[in-house]
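Hey, resending since the last one bounced:
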Amino acid sequence: MKLIIIIVILTTLTSCINKKLIHGNLPTADLVSIIKLGKDNKESISKILGEPSFQGSLGDNSFYYLGRVNSQIAFLKPELEQQIILELNFDKTDKLKKIFVYDENQTINIAMSPKETQLAGYKQSLLRQLLGNFGMPGMKRGGPIIGTGRAEN
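The structure tokens again:
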């Protein structure tokens, strides 16, 4: 009986162990040291480092590799331990121009807006959505089509 109690206690304690959660696509320092400024282009860098986490938009000719390490104890909210962003900046000919490394102290958290964009057209009420398909053209029987799908003679 004591053995069973000890096993249950040890099993529950193992769920409280600090877990490391690794997210993202951050290449190792060895791989980053292979790439050369002014020589490598987007294609060769993608082959060496893999596809970036995301690419620059709106005229930003860059690759971004993001990696983060969180720690979590049991069911508690994960805490950020380390976050690194590797930015590879390219010139107009897609040759590697500059390399930047940012840590969690150099980033800004941006809160998402709760607002929604209205779609073009009119807004349908719940009743209109529920009853909108009744009497639609092409529904000869007024309901779902039942049968084999073959034309009747």
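The longest helix spans residues 2-14.

Sorry for the duplicate.
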